[in-house]
Amino acid sequence: MSSPIPQAQVPPAPSDPPVLLNPPILLGWREFAALPRLGIAAMRAKIDTGARSSALHVDAQWRFVEAGAPWVGFRLSRGVVGASVVEATAPVFDEREVTDSGGHRTRRVFIRTVLSLAGSEREIDINLADRRGMRFPMLLGRTAVAHAFTVDPSRSFLHGRVRRRAPRA
């Protein structure tokens, strides 16, 4: 019996989607995620493969110019009662129209930052939005989870929960 002939490994063309080298990480429909460059250690996030882009709730945002390039400053609360307010700045990566789940179109600022989720880190694009009425201050759309994660919509917090501290006596 002869052994099979090894196949040449051809790198994918730039237009081809990235090839998964490892099995994807399984996520529930909601998880805790971090945005370490923004000083956010843990925030409840809804994993929404029906949404193309990701969104981060901000209470306020302002634009400024740094070294001739557009930047955005913003303030947010992490959606946890008693949590401190986070203030951060980032270069503006893009600005484009986004259609929300109600069909309303708004122009939003996008930043590019590192997402830390389920022991994995990757750069993602995320838009800054007013998600005040939503249950999750962060929404991770399919472009943020593509080629690295799969989602089981029947499960939640597969990678642990952030425990709330007991009230001080």
Question: What is the gist of this entry?
Answer:
The chain is mostly beta strands. It is 2% helix and 48% strand.
Account of the 3D structure:
- The protein has 169 residues and is mainly β.
- It has one domain (25-148): Beta Barrel (Cathepsin D, subunit A, domain 1), CATH 2.40.70.
- It has one helix at 142-145; strands at residues 25-28, 30-35, 40-47, 54-57, 60-66, 69-77, 85-91, 94-99, 105-117, 120-129, 138-140, 149-152.
- The chain starts with 24 loop residues before the first strand and ends in a 17-residue tail after the last strand.
Strand content: over 45%
CATH class: Mainly Beta
Rg over CA atoms: 19 Å
Based on DSSP secondary structure assignment, what is the total number of beta strands?
Answer: 12
CATH superfamily: Acid Proteases
- The tally of domains stands at 1
Could you list the spans in which at least 5 consecutive residues all have pLDDT below 50? 1-11
The mean pLDDT is 86
Oligomeric state: single chain
| Class computed from helices, strands and strand pairing | mainly beta
Looking at the overall shape, the CATH architecture is Beta Barrel
What sort of overall outline do the alpha carbons produce when their principal axes are compared?
Answer: globular
